Amino acid sequence: MEKQDKKMKILFILGLSHSGSTFLDMLLSHYTGAIGLGELHAVADEKTTNTEHTFDICSCGEKMKACSFWKKLDGFHASGSDEDRYKAYYQKFIEMASLEGKDIIIDSSKKTSTLNEVLKLQDAGIAEVKVIYIVKDLRSYLQSMHSYYKRQSRRWRPYWHTAWRWNKKLTRMEKNLLDKKIPHIQISYEKLCFETSAVLGEIFEFSGLDNSQFSFENGMCSHVAYGNRTKKSFQGVQDIRYSSEWMYNFWLNVCALLAFPLYKKSQDRFATKIMYREDE
């Protein structure tokens, strides 16, 4: 009797930019049977650059044109509506991952609009989607954005404005999850850094994955095309570290004190929890 093909599982990472999505993507790619592919929405949108100027190099270390995985996409193009284009591309990504012997795709696209499109694949029976919502502490997020603007030689926004946008964007994401009752696990970037094994274990349990299949000794199966500069430097457990730079930024901490009511109000965002279980 022929073995039935297993449905591809997509671990979709939702969150803001510079909140640890690429880092989490590369951590999860140590799981047996998983392949980390970064921000797949950008590949489906056929973008050829990103804000960190790292698109031409895959996280495997090869140039995109020479990468054994992305070469399988040569000559492929999909057009039409967003829904048609995303469906065609994701079906191609699933085919490419299957050829690598993988049954789990990690997509760190982060965007709500992309999540809504990917969930249509689940509705169509094409894939099983598990949503991981990652949130970074406001103070750490402010420092990350300040450093990003500095690297880009761009005029940086005042801390209060970035804090307002942080809350506004997270509120929109949470509203979409709430309104559509999308099952997801919420995790803290900080807890992921300090309690890595525990948080990964909770993610695997939520995703219906066997925790024993994860080990840093497995090595990564990572082909992140579109993601931040983390993809160029992260190699495994030895590179897990938390940046405490924000603690020494005087004006950032002044702003954080002024924004304390906002921070206190959003304290619930930093707890690991599972929302809207599918069996509820």
Outline the structure in words.
Helix 3 (82-99) crosses helix 4 (112-123) and helix 5 (138-151) crosses helix 6 (159-179). This protein has 280 residues and is α/β, with parallel strands linked by helices. It has 11 helices and 6 strands. The chain has a 6-stranded mixed beta sheet with strand order 2-3-1-4-5-6, with helices on both faces. The protein has one domain (8-275): Rossmann fold (3-Layer(aba) Sandwich), CATH 3.40.50. The longest helix is centred in the middle third of the chain and has 21 residues, at 159-179. It is globular, with a radius of gyration of 19 Å. The model has no long low-confidence stretch (mean pLDDT 86).
Number of strands: 6
Strands in their spatial order, largest beta sheet: 2-3-1-4-5-6
CATH architecture call: 3-Layer(aba) Sandwich
Please tally the helical runs, counting DSSP H or I stretches of 4 or more residues. 11
Largest β sheet strand count, sense and barrel closure: 6 strands, mixed
- CATH top level class name: Alpha Beta
**CATH topology, anyone?**
Rossmann fold
The ordered H/E elements are EHEHHEHEHHEHHHHHE
Look at the structure and give the mean pLDDT.
86
Shape: globular
Structural class determined from secondary elements: alpha/beta
In whole angstroms, the N-to-C terminal distance is 35 Å
Indicate how many domains the architecture comprises.
Answer: 1
How much helical structure, as a percent, in the residues? 40-55%
Strand content: 5-15%
List its salient traits.
12% strand, Rossmann fold, single chain, 280 residues, 41% helix, alpha/beta
